[in-house]
Amino acid sequence: MHQDVTCEHLDRDPVGTTAPRLQATLAVPFERSGRSLHSGRHATVRVSPAPADHGIVFRRRLKDGRAVDVPAQWHFRESQPLSSAIRRDGVLVRTIEHLMAALSALRIDNVIAEIDADELPIFDGSATPWCEAIRAARRSEQGQPCRVIRVQRAVAVEHGQRRLEIRPGAGLHVTGHIALAHFGSIDWSGAITPDSFEREIAPARSFGRYVRAMAGRAYGYMMQNDFLQGVSPRSAALLVRGRVLGGMRLPGEPVRHRILDLVGDLALAGHPIEGRITALHTGHELNHALVAALMRDTTAWVLA
């Protein structure tokens, strides 16, 4: 469900800049297949190199033989339950956040991701399968510099107890917090780099309460809706009171997954974002609200 948010802008002096890196793509294509979280159907994604300044573009292969390109950019974003989605010319691509996070964190700027369905595979609910595929395909630098969005003054969005704020800072640094019944407060803070993302963020799985997830799947089935039809302990970390079925992969796994989703959603800005983020109880709606608020206020950032 779409949630309205309030937005505020907080003045702050800009910080120093860092040297630009070169844009990068993949050395070779890779292909991965699996079941999707919401539709429960099988999908195949082929991710291929693209030229400099191309960006991340999803190419949806339709049953009538047509192919429609949907750029992974914030103004194509469409609100969908429990996922990030983009739509162009009536063509939907959804549950893109884990691949987007892996590409962004591993500094892959230009690819074409072809998909034969409307939803990407969920795999085990984490971004690790995408990271492994990207590493195997290898990163290939290109001749053009990578331009980054450098935050010049703080921008914040909030809804109730949920708040998401970005302030000036070198690189991307995230401080995340959530509080869950039977788990208490869960926190993580650190710089998002290729190594830290793969080690500390990517393995964290989508999560939810077991009872609610199974009820949602049953409701989707009865109503013939594509909602949580692929959810199971194999595709998510399911919570039962104060424990995770099968155990946590990482300490504080739920907040780390919220940060994973945030990294993927920020990537829809179209360029890497540099700043210090504080994320309190954030989710996809708030993440996208921050991106939209930031991009619309062109006085709050520079493209360097």
Automatic annotation (TrEMBL):
Its EC number is 3.5.1.108. GO terms for biological process: lipid A biosynthetic process. Its cofactor is Zn(2+). Gene3D superfamilies: lpxc deacetylase, domain 1 (3.30.230.20), lpxc deacetylase, domain 2 (3.30.1700.10). One of its GO terms (cellular component) is membrane. It catalyses: a UDP-3-O-[(3R)-3-hydroxyacyl]-N-acetyl-alpha-D-glucosamine + H2O = a UDP-3-O-[(3R)-3-hydroxyacyl]-alpha-D-glucosamine + acetate. The active site is at H284 (proton donor). Zn(2+) binds at H98, H257, D261. Pfam families: LpxC. InterPro entries: Ribosomal_Su5_D2-typ_SF (IPR020568), UDP-acyl_GlcNac_deAcase (IPR004463), UDP-acyl_GlcNac_deAcase_C (IPR011334), UDP-acyl_N-AcGlcN_deAcase_N (IPR015870). GO terms for molecular function: metal ion binding; UDP-3-O-acyl-N-acetylglucosamine deacetylase activity. Pathway: Glycolipid biosynthesis; lipid IV(A) biosynthesis; lipid IV(A) from (3R)-3-hydroxytetradecanoyl-[acyl-carrier-protein] and UDP-N-acetyl-alpha-D-glucosamine: step 2/6. Keywords: Hydrolase, Lipid A biosynthesis, Lipid biosynthesis, Lipid metabolism, Metal-binding, Zinc. Belongs to the LpxC family. Catalyzes the hydrolysis of UDP-3-O-myristoyl-N-acetylglucosamine to form UDP-3-O-myristoylglucosamine and acetate, the committed step in lipid A biosynthesis. PANTHER family: UDP-3-O-ACYL-N-ACETYLGLUCOSAMINE DEACETYLASE 1, MITOCHONDRIAL-RELATED. This is UDP-3-O-acyl-N-acetylglucosamine deacetylase.
